[in-house]
Design goal:
32 helices, globular, mainly alpha, 760 residues, 2 domains
């Protein structure tokens, strides 16, 4: 079945502001070949149809389906090599489970990636309505764009498959773990319910199935761009439970394994899913590229724009997939020869080779195919020397390479599903005689907490390392871009931003993170640095202002990064969370809720809880610092006196809470901090009291610094206001002052109690 763009049934009225009217008309001899659609019955039209369709029909929906299904072949081959066909020696769930589980996981991963990527593309790369953006702003909305409708149709179909596959994986995983064949017997059903209620793997896949079902219901109802953006975030949340189970849920360096796997899955979803969506869209995009669709639908320009945007996203995803894959493999393989002598290492080697091949094809798209495809439709000057036949050849090569990419990616996903069921060379079991700290935290006890160890001990958390490096590269690349076009940017802001990122890496990967798992004082250092020190440096770097100055403005009806930033800044949510009272209450109140409820224990025991804690305190600190001293745009900036008042109140609250912790005689989370088994000359309760003192010191000093910065900004704003008033007075010759004085003279003359007669 071929998907074709629907033809418009009514003509659009001519609009003098419509950029389409500035295009060359079909009667222009220079543009006749590119802009005119030959009559279907004419010899020229028949020949053109034959030549144009030949390279594209080879990549229709049947070919797309074949490329996607190649992964099933990879599952079978990898399964035979790793012994999936061999029944278990003690218990065997049966051939249905042995083969059905990897196949269900393959379908799940592919359907999830396709559904989420389709929604992402609809939210960020494809116009929702037909017609120029300016016309829609005046309330003259057109019909839904056919490419937008086709993408959401793909998302709906893929989400249904995702939901069914998630349920299948849930059932088959229980069958595999319990060794029971799938059946409707009461013993199987009772065990399955217990599996969902009490086993981490069952809880994770039940959460994935619930997310997929909710995503499926919403994808058929949501059509607004902000709604699709939120929906894509919901779909990406399905990555989290998957990252928390499997090989990354046990063994050495649990946090690094989980984070690297999560980043790996994120890159795969965006990369593989986006390419699968493009391949399924090939019939619709072909009509757009050949100019068969209505002129105000974007035509070839839309295809070129969509491919460029996906190419940028895919480039970032490739880097993320490759880097996170290396990190995860390093945790599971301890010798180079295991890459070829073990089934696990061999599959990793095959995946690495496939990623390199895909990166090469992606480079061909970015550097050669897309520029020629776009240049063929950019006007006579840009496409001089590019005949229509050349353009048709480039289009055919484009879709053929996309099909090859999808086939390779599908095979890689198939290999990955078998890889998840293959034991790695490194044992995932706890070593004999593991220390209490190793049993509780998953890591051996570090040396005594001397000051030097806080700066020399490192355990890299790759999630925050990748984030910090990526933001630093983007920031300075943006500064260079500004300077090249003649605009200035203070170097001090860039230095401040980089210092903030370096501090973030230290607090999440250095000694503060290592001791934060075993000592309350170490946790307090980590917490207060995250919420008080890092945000000040980041806010003073003004990253939002830099982004708004560098990022391009989209005029095709879609929302890019710049448009999403502006939408978030002016949203109701932003107005609420950046209100000074809300920001201060969230900043200070989070401390009480966190430390004096069960939330503290959840953040210590569960990796996801720890990650949420880190993100929460980083964001609350950033918002508080932004409201108090930031220069980035806000819905409404509070007056200077209110800022100082809020800072003084925050200082008082921190001091009160720190004194309470310093004098406390009861140990918080005694089951955790009281059972580490260290012998460093102080008790867990004494360490907690020391943590209260650190809270006071680390909290008060940055708050005082914020107060000083706020006072300086107040003084500078007053100086700027005075200079503006002086310039206005010079320009008007003190007209405002004379009018003010004359008002008082008139009031005095009209005063009935003014004494009569001469004075003196």
């Amino acid at each position: 079945m071929r998907v074709r763009a629907p033809a418009l049934t009514t003509a659009t009225a001519a609009d003098p502001t419509d950029p389409d009217l500035s295009r060359p008309t079909p009667t222009d001899p220079e543009t006749e070949d590119a802009c005119m659609t030959p009559a279907p019955g004419s010899p020229r039209g028949a020949a053109a149809d034959t030549e144009a369709d030949a390279p594209v029909r080879a990549v229709g929906l049947p070919a797309a389906g074949a490329a996607l299904c190649l992964g099933l072949v990879a599952v079978v081959v990898a399964g035979l090599l790793t012994g999936l066909s061999t029944p278990g020696e003690i218990v065997d769930p049966g051939a249905l489970t042995r083969w059905g589980l990897p196949i269900a996981r393959f379908v799940h991963h592919l359907a999830m990636a396709t559904a989420v990527s389709a929604v992402l593309l609809a939210a960020a790369a494809i116009p929702a309505r037909i017609g120029p953006r300016g016309r829609r702003r005046r309330g003259q909305d057109g019909a839904e764009h056919p490419v937008f409708a086709a993408v959401l149709s793909i998302a709906g179909t893929a989400s249904v498959v995702w939901t069914v596959a998630a349920i299948a994986v849930l059932v088959l995983t229980f069958s595999d773990i319990s060794g029971q064949p799938v059946s409707g017997q009461s013993s199987f059903n009772e065990g399955f319910l217990g599996y969902i209620e009490s086993i981490a793997t069952g809880q994770a896949w039940a959460a994935v199935a619930a997310i997929a079902a909710l995503f499926t219901m919403l994808v058929f109802a949501v059509r607004s761009t902000p709604g699709l953006f939120v929906l894509s975030a919901l779909g990406l949340a399905g990555i989290v439970p998957i990252a928390l189970v499997g090989h990354s849920s046990s063994g050495d360096d649990h946090m690094a394994a989980v984070n690297s796997l999560g980043m790996h899955l994120l890159g795969v979803v965006v990369w593989v899913g986006g390419l699968a969506v493009l391949l399924l869209l090939a019939p619709v995009l072909r009509d757009q590229a050949r100019g068969l669709a209505a002129r105000d639908q974007g035509g070839p320009e839309l295809v070129g724009t969509l491919l460029r945007r996906y190419s940028t996203i895919a480039g970032l995803a490739i880097v993320l997939v490759a880097a996170s894959g290396v990190v995860n493999a390093e945790l599971r393989i301890f010798a180079w020869d295991q890459l070829i002598t073990t089934p696990y290492g061999l599959m990793i080697s095959l995946k690495a080779a496939a990623v390199l091949a895909l990166a090469g094809i992606g480079w061909m798209h970015r550097s050669w195919i897309i520029p020629r495809l776009v240049g063929a439709h950019a006007g006579p000057a840009a496409r001089r020397g590019a005949a229509p036949a050349d353009q048709r050849g480039v289009t055919g090569l484009l879709w053929q390479l996309v099909a090859v990419e999808v086939a390779i990616m599908s095979a890689v996903v198939g290999v990955s599903t078998v890889l998840g069921r293959t034991a790695p060379p490194v044992s995932e079991d706890l070593p004999p005689g593991a220390s209490p700290a190793r049993i509780i935290t998953g890591y051996d006890l570090p040396p005594a907490p001397e000051l030097a160890n806080y700066f020399t001990l490192w355990r890299l958390d790759w999630l925050w390392v990748f984030l910090a490096v990526g933001l630093a590269v983007w920031y300075w690349a943006s500064v260079v871009r500004l300077r090249r076009r003649g605009d200035s940017w203070p170097i001090a802001r860039g230095v401040s931003f980089v210092l903030g990122l370096m501090t973030l890496v230290w607090v999440t990967s250095g000694g503060a993170s290592i001791y934060g798992l075993v000592l309350f004082s170490g946790h307090m250092i980590q917490h207060m640095t995250l919420t008080m020190v890092v945000p000040i440096f980041l806010v003073m770097g003004s990253p939002v202002t830099l982004a708004l100055r560098v990022l391009p403005v989209r005029a095709d009806g879609t929302r890019g990064t710049r448009e999403w930033i502006l939408w978030l800044v002016h949203s109701r949510f932003s107005r609420i969370v950046t209100h000074p009272v809300v920001a201060a209450a969230n900043f200070a109140g989070s401390l009480v809720i966190f430390y004096y409820t069960a939330v503290f224990g959840l953040a210590l025991e569960y990796h996801l809880g720890h990650l949420i804690m880190t993100v929460h305190f980083l964001l609350t600190g950033y918002i508080f610092a932004l409201v108090m001293v930031g220069q980035d745009p806000l819905p409404k900036r509070p007056p200077h006196p209110l800022r100082l008042l809020m800072l003084l109140a925050t200082m008082a609250f921190h001091a009160f809470l720190a004194v309470a912790l310093s004098g406390s005689e009861s140990l918080l989370q005694a089951g955790w901090f009281g059972n580490m088994g260290y012998d460093w000359g102080f008790s867990a309760l004494e360490d907690q009291q020391r943590g209260g003192e650190l809270m006071w010191g680390i909290g008060e000093i940055p708050t005082m610094l914020l107060a000083v910065i706020a006072a300086i900004q107040w003084s500078r704003d007053d100086d700027r206001q005075m200079r503006r008033e002086d310039r206005e007075a010079e320009r008007t010759d003190d007209a405002a002052l004379r009018e003010y004085n004359e008002m008082f003279v008139r009031m005095a003359e009209n005063d009935p109690h003014r004494p009569k007669g001469p004075r003196g």
